[in-house]
Sequence to fold (136 residues):
Amino acid sequence: MNKQPRIILTSQDLDRLEALLETLPAATFPGKAELLRELDRAEVVSPQEVSPDVVTMNSKVRFALESGEEFCLTLVYPKDMDGSAERISILAPVGSALLGLSVGEHIEWPRPGGGMMKVQIVEVIYQPERAGEFHR
Fold:
């Protein structure tokens, strides 16, 4: 059995995500139960206390593939999806998996042609809380 990584959430992200999930029928979001379980097991801190290397909502994150190739994504709410390849919704399975992780941790990522690959969180380039943006 794989040990689940520690998840750290801000109280503000938790409140907003719970409100979002209340509005979504399970039929329209198959991962709803899984995301709720992740929220339930998270360590919750105030936005001012979250470590600067934790992925929070609206954080821009740099990842490394096993090959050494790197890419960046910003974790957003569904309303902030704009069709760009640089944003990932919290409702996407990979988006849900990113929330609350820290620099250095790995997650499994679906390969375009099928199968899974491991990616590592290299850097949280931008985190709203670190920037003092608590009213986003």
Notes: Residues 7 and 100 are 4 Å apart (CA to CA). The helical segments are 11-22, 32-41, 93-98.
